[in-house]
Amino acid sequence: MINKVTLIGHLGRDPETRTLESGAKVSTFTLATSESYKDKNDQWQSLTEWHNIVAWRYQAEKAERELKKGSLAYVEGKITHRKYNDKDGVERSITEIVAAQIISLDRKDPQSRNMENNPLAPGQQAMPPLGNPVIHEELKHGNPSAGSSITEGEDDLPF
């Protein structure tokens, strides 16, 4: 069985991060996803869905550090439902996405791209920007400096 959700949307508010007694961090925020369609009168309509996101530990720290209201973000996780009692003792239910991975999709200023602002995870290699024709040609023709072993005549698809 699979419980997997993938969302790309804009944050509705800054992430709220707190540290639990155990020392674990938890961050919550809302994410808006939108879709457009034409109605029966051939008029464009927009439908926005709001999602409650919960991130734990490293993902909570990442959300706190990289995201803010209005940020474009990729969130992957699982859907959960839970019940709780509000401040008046009334039982409420809520649907949340527990984030397993959060990636900021905001464009970065090229001048600020350095190790301090964009640290790589241990063992992770920097990837060349997509769409660069020089790098594409180097990869296509197997230039070792481009980090590829593709030779002339081989299919240039990565799979």
CATH architectural type of the domain at 5-107: Beta Barrel
CATH superfamily of the domain at 5-107: Nucleic acid-binding proteins
User: Separation of termini?
Assistant: 27 Å
What overall geometry do the principal axes of the alpha carbons give? globular
Low-confidence stretches: 112-121, 123-157
Strand/helix succession: EEEEHEEH
Number of strands: 6
Name the strands of the widest sheet in spatial order: 1-3-4-6-5
Question: Largest sheet, if any?
Answer: 5 strands, mixed, barrel
Percent in helix: 10-25%
Radius of gyration: 21 Å
CATH class of the domain at 5-107: Mainly Beta
Mean pLDDT: 79
Helix count, DSSP H or I runs of 4 or more residues: 2
CATH fold descriptor of the domain at 5-107:
OB fold (Dihydrolipoamide Acetyltransferase, E2P)
Q: Return the structural class.
A: mainly beta
Oligomeric state of shown chains = single chain
Percentage beta strand: 35-45%
Overview of the molecule:
The protein is mainly beta and 159 residues long. The protein has a domain at 5-107: Beta Barrel (OB fold (Dihydrolipoamide Acetyltransferase, E2P)). It has two helices and six strands, in the order E-E-E-E-H-E-E-H. The chain has a five-stranded mixed beta barrel. Strand 5 and strand 6 form a beta hairpin. The longest helix is centred in the middle third of the chain and has 10 residues, at 57-66. The model is unreliable at 112-121 and 123-157 (pLDDT under 50).
Task: Give a short overview.
This protein has a domain at 5-107: Beta Barrel (OB fold (Dihydrolipoamide Acetyltransferase, E2P)), CATH 2.40.50.
